[in-house]
Each structure stands twice: as C-alpha cells, then as structure tokens.
C-alpha cells in the first residue's frame, strides 16, 4: 500500500502502517550516525538533554556528501542501521517514533519498536543522489565538528521509504522471504 505521512509522526497513524507499505514522508526529520549516537548516549548518561527532542520524531541514519552549489545537501543515502542498534532501544524508550536506515536490526531493537509502538523504515541504498532531491532544507543543529556525521535537521517532501518493521512486529525481511521463497 502507498501512504503519505507527516513528520513528526502521529502515534495513531503509525499504528496503521504495515510492513511492506511504501511511505512518503513530508516534514521534519533528523540525521544521526554512529558518532552522533555515541555523543547522545554519553549526554544521557551524564543526565543532560539531547540536542533535539526525540519524542515522535524520526532519525535518518545518514551522513551526506557535500552539497553542490544551490542545493541544501549532497548525496543522502542511508547508512547500515545495525551500527546504531546499541543506542536505538534507549532512544525509542524516550519517545523516538521512527528510524530510517538500511538492513536488518537486532532482536533488542525489534522488541523496542513493538514496545514503543514505533516504526523502522528502509530507504534504498545506492540512491543517495535521488533521495537528496526530496530534501528541501538541511541545517546542522549539533556536533558540527563531526562533519558528515553531525546532527542535521532536514525538511523533506515526499521522502520515499518502505516500512520494514511495523509497530506490531511484522518484519519485512522475514515475511518477504517466506512470501517469495520458491518451492522446488
């Protein structure tokens, strides 16, 4: 099914998303990769606030290439999500509503998605130049010294993703294998 949703995410709308749905996100999302996640974890451990409120927001696991003249951002393809798996459950427990990456997640992350009625989306790897066309504004909001891994606030329009895990725990990487497995 094809869906159009707004970000930050509405929790009731998340409940209607199903693994395998094609979704187009419009609104504000944030970027963070490995180094930014570590800094956020360290800040939480020290009792400090995060650089942005994760409640109902989406983190896109992405570090862009430099922007060409006249563009807000360079190539913006997804990073392998499993690299953030040690940090994701805590952020989900704090209210993070969605994550965008590529690849499989650990059982701990999958359990946290269900526990928090959140969603894991995949963006198409290798399509960073095309994905960047859906990013209308990009602003570094934290950890500028990390360069490409700094946290960015993005305004996106019809950003294309696929629901990999829905809030009920349906996991496309398992269901698709079963659905398309050929019997000999």
UniProtKB/TrEMBL annotation:
GO molecular function: hydro-lyase activity
Keyword Nuclease found: no
Pfam family, one: Fumerase_C
Keywords from the UniProt entry: Lyase
Coiled coil segments of this chain: none
Domain Fe-S hydro-lyase tartrate dehydratase beta-type catalytic: 7-175
Domain of life assignment: Bacteria
Gene3D superfamilies found in the cross-reference section: Fe-S hydro-lyase, tartrate dehydratase beta-type, catalytic domain (3.20.130.10)
Family membership noted in the UniProt record: Belongs to the class-I fumarase family.
PANTHER family (alphabetical): L(+)-TARTRATE DEHYDRATASE SUBUNIT BETA, L(+)-TARTRATE DEHYDRATASE SUBUNIT BETA-RELATED
Protein name: Fe-S-containing hydro-lyase
Provenance organism: Candidatus Limivivens merdigallinarum
């Amino acid at each position: 099914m094809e869906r159009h949703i707004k970000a930050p995410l509405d929790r009731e709308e998340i409940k209607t998303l199903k693994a395998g749905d094609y979704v187009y996100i419009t609104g504000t999302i944030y970027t963070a990769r490995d180094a930014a996640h570590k800094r956020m974890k360290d800040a939480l451990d020290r009792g400090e606030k995060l650089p942005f409120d994760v409640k109902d927001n989406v983190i896109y696991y992405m570090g862009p290439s430099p922007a060409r003249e006249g563009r807000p951002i360079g190539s913006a393809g997804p990073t392998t999500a499993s690299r953030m798996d040690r940090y994701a459950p805590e952020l989900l427990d704090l209210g993070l509503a969605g994550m965008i990456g590529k690849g499989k997640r650990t059982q701990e992350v999958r359990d946290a998605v269900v526990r928090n009625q959140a969603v894991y989306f995949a963006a198409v790897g290798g399509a960073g130049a095309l994905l960047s066309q859906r990013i209308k504004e990009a602003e570094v909001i934290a950890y500028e010294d990390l360069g490409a891994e700094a946290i960015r606030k993005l305004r996106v329009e019809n950003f294309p993703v696929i629901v990999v895990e829905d809030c009920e725990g349906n996991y496309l990487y398992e269901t698709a294998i079963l659905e398309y497995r050929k019997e000999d």
